[in-house]
Amino acid sequence: MHFASRYSGSYRAAQQAAALFGGRVQAIDSDNGTYGLALQALRAAQLADQGATLSEIVNDNAGSGNAQLTHFMVDTLDYLKMSGRVSGISAFIGNLFGIKPMLRFSGGELLPAGRARGTARGLQELTQSLSAYAQGQSGRLRLAYIYAPGGEENVAALQAQLSSWGYEDAGTHLVGPTITSVVGPGSVGVVAEAVRPLPLLRR
Hints:
About 40% of the residues lie in helices and about 20% in strands.
């Protein structure tokens, strides 16, 4: 199970390697990144421990990444400028006025999800996004906090706001270099998913 293929070549390399094993190995494009991918991999491992077949694990994973909420507050526009997502002028003006872009993972891609004026408002946008997501779920939620290097203060503030909400805590995690190269240092976000019971496997 691999990082979204739009951002990494690992999936395509894994496909080539899997072809050498005559169907016994299958590469899975998670359409996901950060800790959302980790949650998918952990569930796949739990299913394997219960004796699930490869096809059952693949079928269970289908669409699970898009069913999660992965939402970022970007701390600086500089890295979005370097990746071509915003112009140099927009980045300069945005940084000058403390604009914090909001991004979300959807369909294996980081997409714009609004903007906020200042860090406090950006963190509020994250909590509102999480609240809206929770209202659309029937079961309890599992919540992880994610942050880029330099985002320790922001993620601590976010935890303080959400600590009383009663979600299953999936920990606090530093994002890897692929995502950091897009969102930049200081960024912070949430990953949430509805807790799904493991299926009963008939053998």
